[in-house]
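Workshop exercise sheet. Pairs work together: one partner reads the sequence aloud, the other fills in the structure field after running the prediction. Swap roles for the next sheet.
Pair: D.N. / O.F.
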Amino acid sequence: MSTAYAESLYPAESNHLLDLASLEKPEVTFWVARLEGEIVGCCSLVEAGDGTAEIKRMFVDPVARGQRVAQKLMDVLEEKASQRRLTAVRLETGIYQPEAIALYRKFGYVEIEPFGDYQPDPLSLFMEKAL
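Structure field:
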């Protein structure tokens, strides 16, 4: 569902989704959120190997939005990042996702230049939080 959502908002060259096979790598931690037994959200933390990590695949099903699912996922993700003594968590999100941008800002993420292998993209917003 998260792939279809991203594809509905952005062209292929502006979609930077992590493929499902990559989620099985040892440097990736993946969480799902459930409400009444149903999966309603997910996110992953991908460690870069340099003391930083990136949030990937953050998604909450529209039927569960407004129920603090994303906030709980962020709490767990940041707790794990702190336990691993990471120095920063970064992310790329799209400009057509104001709710996601607001969530990240609420958690203290600030805009940065493209990082890693990302190239500048007018449809992308890059953010980071120092830990």
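Discussion prompt: The mean pLDDT is 92. What would you look at next?
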